[in-house]
Design brief:
- There is one protein chain.
- The chain contains 8 helices and 19 strands.
- With about 325 residues, it is an alpha/beta fold.
- The protein folds into 3 domains: about 90 residues, Translation factors (Elongation Factor Tu (Ef-tu), domain 3), CATH 2.40.30.10; about 110 residues, Rossmann fold; about 80 residues, Ubiquitin-like (UB roll).
- α5 runs parallel beside α6.
- It is globular, with a radius of gyration of 20 Å.
- It comes from Streptomyces humidus.
Length: about 325
């Protein structure tokens, strides 16, 4: 369900990142969302993109998103860098792929650049419920880091934040290793940022806390090797079956045959089209399912993933 919102305030966090505070056009309050969630945002050009929510999850008055202007933007981030107070946008309901582990006795949040956005809402939630946590924020420079004043001045974060500015990638590992050394078996780690940065976080923390306790939020689609792609059959639990040729996605084939599938990014990032797998072996190519989800083979993202078996039987959620 989409909702019309109005831009109430714009804050230029860095030369490339601006924060937009959104309020409902009808004046009604927002429903509290789960920390780590993101929303679909349709801007003035009609381009739909996903942005993490970085306001306190229980703030019913407004939602906050941060938009980084990307040099290779296809119109989404550039358009949102032109809107101002009073402009109207369309948003979807919050969805979550980066949830806090309820039974963790400690949480370590590790952000790189614009990856601070989903982790900021998680920090708000952890503070509100009195959980043990720390936030490590890496950025190229103080000037290029969003929400620095908030992180330094707000009492909720001040003593739990470690700001790491201008640290080269090859030197980040030692700092991460120091944080990992203090992580106990009940600790969960959450990271968001550039792909190489997150891979390094996983390589440092997974041997200490376990791979299933390192949670990742992706902003970009995975690079897929399509050289060995082949056609396969996808069958719905209703009995309808369709051929998926090389170069076509399951999602596009289903839509072509009149099957309604919920979708958003169509890049394997947002998780909108994730569906159940009843039989067959998926070839996972998404950046939204966890390693455990992929290993189970019980669900897959229909927009990018394919099949390792000749036949897949799926259940649409």
């Amino acid at each position: 369900m989409s909702l019309v919102v109005r831009v109430a305030e714009v804050t230029e966090e860095t030369p490339q990142i601006r924060a937009l505070r959104l309020v409902r056009e009808d004046g009604a309050p927002f429903t509290p969302y789960e920390a780590g969630a993101h929303i679909d945002v349709t801007g003035p050009t009609g381009v739909l993109r996903q942005y993490s929510l970085c306001s306190p999850p229980d703030d019913a008055a407004s939602l906050l998103i941060a938009v980084k202007r990307e040099p290779r933007s296809r119109g989404g981030s550039a358009a949102l860098h032109q809107v101002g107070p009073g402009d109207r946008l369309e948003i979807g309901e919050p969805r979550n792929l980066l949830s806090l582990a309820e039974k963790a006795d400690r949480h370590i949040l590790v952000a790189g650049g614009i990856g601070i956005t989903p982790l900021l809402s998680m920090a708000y939630r952890l503070h509100a419920r009195g959980s043990r946590f720390e936030l490590h924020y890496f950025a190229r420079s103080r000037r290029e880091a969003a929400f620095v004043a908030l992180l330094e001045e707000r009492a909720a974060f001040r003593d739990r934040v470690r700001l790491r500015f201008g640290v080269p990638r090859e030197e980040q590992r030692a700092l991460l290793a120091g944080a990992a050394a203090a992580a106990g078996p009940g600790c969960h780690v959450y990271t968001c940022g550039p792909q190489g940065f997150m891979e390094q976080v996983v390589s440092v923390f997974a041997p200490v806390v376990g791979e299933d306790r390192v949670h990742i939020e992706h902003f970009a689609a995975a690079e897929a090797d399509t050289a060995d792609d082949r056609a396969f059959t996808v069958e719905l639990d209703t009995g309808e079956a369709f051929e998926v040729p090389v170069g076509r996605s399951i999602l596009s084939v289903l839509e072509e045959n009149g099957i309604d599938v919920f979708k958003s990014c169509e890049e394997g990032v947002c998780g909108s089209c994730v569906s159940g797998v009843l039989d067959g072996t998926p070839d996972h190519r998404d950046n939204c399912l966890s390693a455990a989800d992929k290993a189970s083979g019980s669900q897959m993202a229909l927009c990018v993933s394919r099949a390792r078996s000749d036949r897949l039987v799926i259940e649409l959620y």
